[in-house]
Amino acid sequence: MNYRVGVGYDIHRLIEGRKLFLGGVEIPYIKGLFGHSDGDALLHAIIDALLTAAGEDDIGQLFPDTDPKYQGVDSKELLKIATQRAGKKGWRVSNVDAVVIAQEPTLAPFKKKMRKIIAGVLGIEQDAVGLKSKTNENLGEIGRKEAIACFATVLLHKGE
Ligand code: MG
After folding, report:
1. Ligand 1 centroid vs 44 CA: distance in angstroms?
2. What is the pLDDT of residues 7-23, one digit of tens each?
3. Among 51, 83, 91, 133, which is disulfide-ready with 107 (CB 3.0 to 4.6 Å)?
4. Which residues contact residue 61 at a Cβ distance below 8 angstroms, ignoring those fewer than 6 apart?
5. 159 CA from centroid of ligand 1 (Å)
């Protein structure tokens, strides 16, 4: 069995007048994540970890924010494409582990749904998607509710 591990990070600004999407789930909140796509920083961190573990270009190169094709795109679609690119090289996802750093809103009630959606797109069991949410202890831009950041690791395997 061959293994590869990848790490991903993303941060998006929180602004008014946008819907908040994290892990493919729309979360009721007064602000949403700014971005060319739907702004789903958690899926973007996972996509980057997956792509680079598979030896592919990163999310910014593959899905440039200058391309109108990706305007407002559902990030689940980008995750699906990333999974397929890795799959073409024979890489399958073993597990994902991620951290969301958000001062607000409280994400605990949505974690199960996020894990289910991510697992569904990746074609893995729900318990192979680890997800933690943390506040930033009121520190910095995340603590001031101006941004949400996410870290992710993805382990890939090839062979039996
Ligand atoms: Mg992003």
Report:
1. 5
2. 999 999 999 999 999 99
3. 133
4. none
5. 31
CA–centroid distance, 91 to ligand 1, in Å, is: 23
Tens of pLDDT, residue by residue over 20-45, are: 999 999 999 999 999 999 999 999 99
Tokens of 8: 């991903």
3-158: what CATH class? alpha beta
Find the 149 Cα to ligand 1 centroid distance in Å. Answer: 9
Q: Give the burial string for 5-17 (b: 16+ CB within 10 Å, else e).
A: ebebebbbbbeee
Residues 100-117: tens digit of each pLDDT: 999 999 999 999 999 999
pLDDT level of residue 160 (50, 70, 90 thresholds): low
Interval between CA 12 and ligand 1 midpoint (Å): 6
